[in-house]
């Protein structure tokens, strides 16, 4: 049991020793540093995962071919009945070109894009599509790719036979500045653009005589949450994409039968607590049955959870490797911090060895001496850890403001959103890592003080008294 | 035989520093009866402090035995020896050894604090404080109670050390040169105090001093020479 004089002496040492304040400061700074670094780097991985996840939903079923796969509507219908599944939507993906059709106002502007045919309502339930829209994100209604009832008054629309409306990825038409904002050219919106895609023959070869090009009204733009890894994309209505890519139902004269319409992907949103691997298995079963029932022997199908997709998986793996590297670096920093704390306590306790001799000479036990320094180090550890939290937490939360201030005051921008993935530095405290760091600081303080204290406590009183 | 409070039998203590072996105590025999006021003299470096440290259980001898109340202390557990040091023995160091962070009053009360658990401390705190102040008063230190050792003169520190040794009313008081740093007048008052303690409270005292006049105030005088004890001539 802790005796009064042990507590009394520990408190007195804490109050009277400047070294105690230095050791508290050392613990606090180490803790704050580790909290900031682990929260920020951990935040990048988390931010990246969240962003990717919200761009794709949970499970993606795709044909391993530009030709797509049939019976997608049946797959969607049946999938929607599955337990643990919230929504499913078919998507068409095809490579294409986008041309801004405003002669005289913009220089001839053509870009290679990925054309994505979507059903905006269900697509935006599965992904964060709506949140990324410049104009429509502010509306209550689900996003729409319909032409407005009354076309805008725009000279460039004269004589243009619009097929539909499109939404472009913001990176297609704007450049990203270092504060992560986009400078939008207002004249681009509510104007016509031409999207052309290569027409594929049913044999899968390019139909050189018939390139498909449709005029669209550019109504909005979409800012993806992971801009630099998504391809430049243009969103158009699913039906139009299907038509442009010739994935519509058609009658095969040779086989004398009707071939069903096709899609490139079906994207799935699961319930938050659903087991994605299990769900994936069920979806595959559904698909196998549909294929069997329809005697479809087409190309390979790929069933992937969002993070298994090729580009993302390797990217995440890269992030995880970086994180492992970071963890090792932290480990080293942590060890250095603990060693620093150890050194400070070693000095403190060593300086107090004659005191220990006095305490023992008046009958204080070795255990009592140990407890004095245990309380002392525990107090330093606890105060230091919480002080570190008090410094690290607000720093993480306000890290972007702090960074902006540094950037403005010293003209020194470390985090350049123009070239980095995310517009902001992650500013959420990683509480799991923080808890570990704080406990480690406390344990480090205790161990750091216990070793020299135990050494001193086991000395004969006279040895301790004479210690130099 | 059961009339000694502390008894040393064939004490041997050597210090080895490198190739040199210093044989300080060479089979020393000593016994102290309860209520005795004993002085130990000897030239500087003869081993007086070494002997007192062994008697105060602050150090361990190479061979020989020490009996406290006819109980072999080497047979005691650590806790029992700690207890003995705390309750039965008061030690006045030649070099005071006060805790620099504590005031004179707190230094004086330290052994009493060590004795008491948190609970009993809360109960007896006021009483012990009064006792400590009384002792300090006797030692003319009452007005220094709130000072720290660093603010005191050598003599004041020595008196604080004496006060600390007395607070737990130990049966055996071991004093290493208790008047060594005091002027004649103050030294005489300290000796008066020790004499009073001895005569009125039957306090057993073993006092080390190199000064024959001081040693003569004791009832019995022993001389330490060549690691052995002799009667003073
Ligand atoms: N830890 C030690 N290591 C080596 N030698 C020591 C140690 N402690 C004491 N000595 C030696 O032992 C001898 C006796 O020391 P001690 O302190 O007992 O002498 P003393 O009789 O008290 O002298 P003084 O009158 O000067 O206080 C001295 O020569 C001293 O150098
Ligand atoms: Mg001495």
Describe this structure in words.
- The complex is a heterodimer of chains A (468) and B (233).
- Chain A is 48% helix and 17% strand.
- By secondary structure, chain A is of the alpha+beta class.
- Chain A folds into 2 domains: 198 residues, no CATH class; 252 residues, no CATH class.
- In chain A, the strands form 3 sheets. Chain A has a 6-stranded mixed beta barrel. Chain A has a two-stranded antiparallel sheet with strand order 2-11. A two-stranded antiparallel ribbon of chain A has the order 9-10.
- In chain A, strand 3 and strand 4 form a beta hairpin.
- In chain A, helix 8 packs parallel to helix 12.
- Chain A is elongated.
- The two termini of chain A are 31 Å apart.
- Chain B has 233 residues and is of the alpha/beta class.
- Chain B is built from 7 helices and 10 strands.
- In chain B, the strands form 2 sheets. Chain B has a 6-stranded mixed sheet with strand order 6-7-8-3-9-10. In chain B, strands 2-1-4-5 form a 4-stranded antiparallel sheet, with helices on one face.
- At the A-B interface, helix 1, helix 9 and helix 13 of A face helix 2, helix 3 and helix 4 of B.
- Bound molecules: adenosine-5'-triphosphate and magnesium ion (MG).
- Magnesium ion binds next to helix 1 of chain B.
Quickly list its features.
heterodimer; A: 468 residues; alpha+beta; six-stranded mixed barrel; 13 helices; 13 strands; 17% strand; elongated; B: Rossmann fold; four-stranded antiparallel beta sheet; 7 helices; binds adenosine-5'-triphosphate; binds magnesium ion
Assembly classification = heterodimer
Low-confidence regions of chain B: none
Strand order across the largest sheet of chain A = 3-4-8-5-7-6
N→C terminal distance of chain A: 31 Å
Structural class of chain A: alpha+beta
Number of strands of chain A: 13
Low-confidence segments of chain A, given as residue ranges, are none
Q: Using the CA coordinates, give the radius of gyration of chain A.
A: 32 Å
């Amino acid at each position: 049991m802790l005796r009064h004089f042990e507590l009394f002496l520990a408190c007195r040492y804490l109050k009277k020793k400047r070294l105690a304040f230095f050791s508290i400061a050392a613990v606090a700074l180490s803790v704050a540093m580790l909290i900031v670094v682990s929260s920020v780097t951990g935040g990048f991985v988390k931010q990246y995962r969240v962003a990717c996840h919200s761009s794709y939903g949970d499970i993606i079923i795709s044909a391993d071919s530009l030709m797509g796969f049939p019976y997608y509507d049946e797959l969607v219908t049946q999938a929607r009945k599955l337990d643990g599944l919230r929504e499913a939507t078919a998507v068409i993906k095809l490579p294409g070109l986008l041309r801004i059709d405003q002669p005289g106002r913009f220089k001839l502007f053509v870009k290679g894009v990925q054309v994505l045919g979507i059903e905006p309502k269900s697509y935006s339930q599965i992904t964060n599509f709506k949140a990324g829209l410049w104009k429509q994100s502010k509306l209550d209604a689900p996003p729409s790719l319909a032409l407005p009832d009354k076309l805008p008054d725009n000279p460039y629309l004269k004589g243009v036979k619009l097929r539909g409306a499109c939404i472009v990825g913001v990176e297609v038409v704007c450049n990203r500045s270092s504060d992560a904002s986009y400078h939008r050219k207002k004249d681009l919106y509510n104007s016509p653009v031409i999207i052309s895609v290569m027409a594929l023959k049913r044999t899968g070869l390019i139909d050189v005589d018939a390139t498909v090009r449709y005029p669209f009204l550019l109504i909005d733009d979409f800012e993806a949450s992971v801009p630099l890894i998504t391809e430049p994309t243009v969103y158009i209505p699913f039906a139009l994409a299907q038509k442009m890519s010739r994935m519509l139902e058609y009658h095969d004269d040779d086989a004398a039968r009707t071939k069903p319409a096709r899609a490139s992907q079906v994207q799935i949103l699961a319930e938050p607590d659903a087991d994605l691997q299990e769900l994936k298995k069920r979806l595959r079963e559904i698909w196998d049955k549909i294929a069997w029932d329809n005697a479809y022997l087409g190309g390979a199908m790929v069933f992937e959870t969002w993070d298994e997709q090729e580009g993302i998986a390797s990217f995440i793996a890269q992030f995880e490797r970086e994180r492992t590297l970071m963890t090792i670096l932290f480990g080293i920093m942590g060890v250095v911090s603990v060693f620093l704390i150890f050194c400070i306590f070693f000095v403190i306790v060593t300086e107090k060895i004659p005191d220990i001799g006095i305490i023992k000479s008046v009958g204080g036990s070795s255990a009592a001496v140990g407890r004095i320094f245990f309380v002392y180090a525990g107090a330093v550890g606890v105060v230091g850890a919480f002080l570190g939290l008090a410094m690290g937490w607000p720093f993480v939360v306000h890290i972007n403001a702090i960074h902006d201030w540094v950037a403005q005051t010293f003209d020194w921008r470390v985090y350049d959103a123009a070239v980095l993935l995310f517009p902001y530095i992650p500013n959420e405290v990683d509480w799991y890592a923080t808890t570990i760091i704080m406990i480690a600081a406390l344990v480090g303080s205790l161990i750091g003080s216990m070793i020299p204290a135990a050494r001193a406590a086991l000395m004969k009183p006279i040895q301790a008294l004479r210690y130099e | 035989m059961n009339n000694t409070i502390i008894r040393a039998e064939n004490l041997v203590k050597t210090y080895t520093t490198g190739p040199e072996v210093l044989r300080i105590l060479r089979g020393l025999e000593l016994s102290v009866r309860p209520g005795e006021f004993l002085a130990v003299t000897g030239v500087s470096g003869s081993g007086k402090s070494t002997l007192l440290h062994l008697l105060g259980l602050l150090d361990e001898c190479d061979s020989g035995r020490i009996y406290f109340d006819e109980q072999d202390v080497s047979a005691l557990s650590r806790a029992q020896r700690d207890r003995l040091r705390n309750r039965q023995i008061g030690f006045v160091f030649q070099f005071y050894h006060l805790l620099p962070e504590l005031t004179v009053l707190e230094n004086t009360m330290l052994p009493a604090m060590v004795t008491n658990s948190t609970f009993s401390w809360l109960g007896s705190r006021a009483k012990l404080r009064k006792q400590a102040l009384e002792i300090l008063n006797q030692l003319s230190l009452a007005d220094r109670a709130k000072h720290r050792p660093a603010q005191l003169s050598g003599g004041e520190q020595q008196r604080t050390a004496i006060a600390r040794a007395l607070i737990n009313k130990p049966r055996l008081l071991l004093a290493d040169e208790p008047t060594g740093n005091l002027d004649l007048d103050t030294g005489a008052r300290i000796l008066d105090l020790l004499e009073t303690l001895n005569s009125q409270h039957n306090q057993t005292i073993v006092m080390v001093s190199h000064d024959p006049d001081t040693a003569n105030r004791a009832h019995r005088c022993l001389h330490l020479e060549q690691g052995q004890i002799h009667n003073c001539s």
